[in-house]
Amino acid sequence: MLLGILAMVASYFIKRGFRARALVFLVIMTGVGAIGVGLFPETAGVIHHVFSVIAFVFGGLSAIASYKVQKMPSSCFSVLLGVMTLGALAMYVSNIFLELGPGGMERMIVYPALIWSVGFGAYLMGKS
Questions:
Q1: Which of 32, 43, 54, 97 has the fewest CB atoms within 10 Å around its CB?
Q2: 31-87, pLDDT tens digit by residue?
Q3: Minimal CA–CA distance to 42: which of 113, 115, 116, 102?
Q4: What is the pTM of this model?
């Protein structure tokens, strides 16, 4: 839940610093998804999966959309990490686990998004 709350706080600062409405919306939706995942654990059933998909899809899209506010090479890495997240999600929902199992493939969805968020935050801190 804390990750989602902090994503929403970050969206406020992204809005103040850039004219990137789409990115702000995507980051807010990522936060909504993360809060939902925290509120509804895996034992909650379908609602957990719905919020997971929201967090993963919008997290990947946020990484891709952030290229507009970054300079090279950070922008390229952001797009790559977003594509990795969305590609791993597509494989996961298609039951393609690359011999990692469902849990391992889920990590392949989450890790690129988390790496992007840390890198993007560092990029923004260095910019100020």
A1: 43
A2: 999 999 999 998 998 999 999 999 999 999 999 999 999 999 999 999 999 999 999
A3: 102
A4: 0.90
DSSP secondary structure, the chain, as one string:
-HHHHHHHHHHHHHHHH---HHHHHHHHHHHHHHHHHHHS-GGGTHHHHHHHHHHHHHHHHHHHHGGGG--TTHHHHHHHHHHHHHHHHHHHHTT--TTSHHHHHHHHHHHHHHHHHHHHHHHHHHH-
pLDDT at residue 19, as a whole number: 83
